[in-house]
């Protein structure tokens, strides 16, 4: 009986997780036209929640197409919002550990997060080349002492392990303290914390981002929209929303 209940639970779990479908539309439209098309015929332009979604996007592309609009866009009135690289970890303002006078946002362009040996947080320029912490599939934490920009560090972690370390609970794990015990007190260590002005067309708050390694988190992206580039592993790039491109819609709801 217990086994039957477990199988039923797994069936329902699979059903809910797969309750949305992606549709590649091989018609060239501006981002706004694509959004209108998706809302009329489906649900909306696609929202991407994790790397499994990215794999599905790549698999549904026609193969001969290079890129397509997704549902991510930025407008001048949008305020920068903090997120974690691991999309299942939600940023909570009440669960922070900022150092004194941090985040100080020098020049208004410090959009990536670091920690020091004392586990206090700070913000830095995202193109600063620093060591970084990642979590692997066994939920173990490791320090990589090869200096990389934030986007490069994120790509490294996702390609070889799981993702950049994310959330106060992970950062304060005893294993992390041991892993960084040998570094200097003033060594900057990148975490999965970042902030941006990008939003999803359907209004959802998913923090997953998959920008190309050259993406500049310090830039202003007013009136810009996001494309997934199939011959770059599906990584995203920003583009003027008035350009005409194929696009991807989705049906259903995300859980």
UniProtKB/TrEMBL annotation:
<protein>
    <recommendedName>
        <fullName>C-type lectin domain-containing protein</fullName>
    </recommendedName>
</protein>
<dbReference type="InterPro" id="IPR018378">
    <property type="entry name" value="C-type_lectin_CS"/>
</dbReference>
<dbReference type="InterPro" id="IPR016186">
    <property type="entry name" value="C-type_lectin-like/link_sf"/>
</dbReference>
<feature type="domain" description="C-type lectin">
    <location>
        <begin position="136"/>
        <end position="250"/>
    </location>
</feature>
<feature type="domain" description="C-type lectin">
    <location>
        <begin position="22"/>
        <end position="135"/>
    </location>
</feature>
<dbReference type="Pfam" id="PF00059">
    <property type="entry name" value="Lectin_C"/>
</dbReference>
<dbReference type="InterPro" id="IPR001304">
    <property type="entry name" value="C-type_lectin-like"/>
</dbReference>
<dbReference type="InterPro" id="IPR016187">
    <property type="entry name" value="CTDL_fold"/>
</dbReference>
<keyword id="KW-1015">Disulfide bond</keyword>
């Amino acid at each position: 009986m217990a086994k039957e209940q477990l199988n039923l639970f797994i069936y329902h779990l699979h059903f809910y997780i797969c309750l949305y479908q992606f549709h590649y539309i091989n018609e060239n439209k501006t981002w706004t036209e694509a959004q209108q098309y998706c809302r009329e015929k489906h649900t909306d332009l696609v929202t991407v929640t994790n790397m499994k979604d990215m794999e599905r996007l790549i698999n549904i592309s026609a193969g001969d197409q290079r890129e397509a609009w997704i549902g991510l866009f930025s407008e001048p009135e949008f305020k920068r919002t903090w997120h974690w690289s691991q999309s299942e970890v939600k940023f909570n303002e009440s669960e922070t550990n900022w150092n004194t006078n941090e985040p100080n946002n020098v020049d208004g362009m410090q959009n990536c997060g670091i920690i020091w040996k004392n586990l206090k947080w700070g913000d830095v320029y995202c193109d600063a080349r620093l060591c970084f912490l990642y979590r692997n599939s066994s939920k173990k934490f490791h320090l990589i002492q090869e200096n990389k920009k934030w986007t490069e560090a994120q790509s490294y972690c996702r390609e070889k392990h799981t993702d950049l370390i994310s959330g106060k609970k992970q950062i304060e794990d005893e294993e992390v303290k041991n892993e960084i015990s040998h570094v200097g007190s003033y060594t900057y260590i990148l975490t999965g914390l970042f902030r941006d002005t990008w939003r999803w067309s359907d209004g959802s708050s998913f923090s997953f981002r998959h920008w190309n390694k050259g993406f500049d988190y310090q830039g202003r992206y007013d009136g810009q929209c996001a494309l997934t580039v199939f011959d770059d592993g599906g990584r995203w790039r920003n583009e003027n929303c008035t350009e005409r491109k194929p696009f991807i819609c989705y049906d259903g709801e995300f859980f």
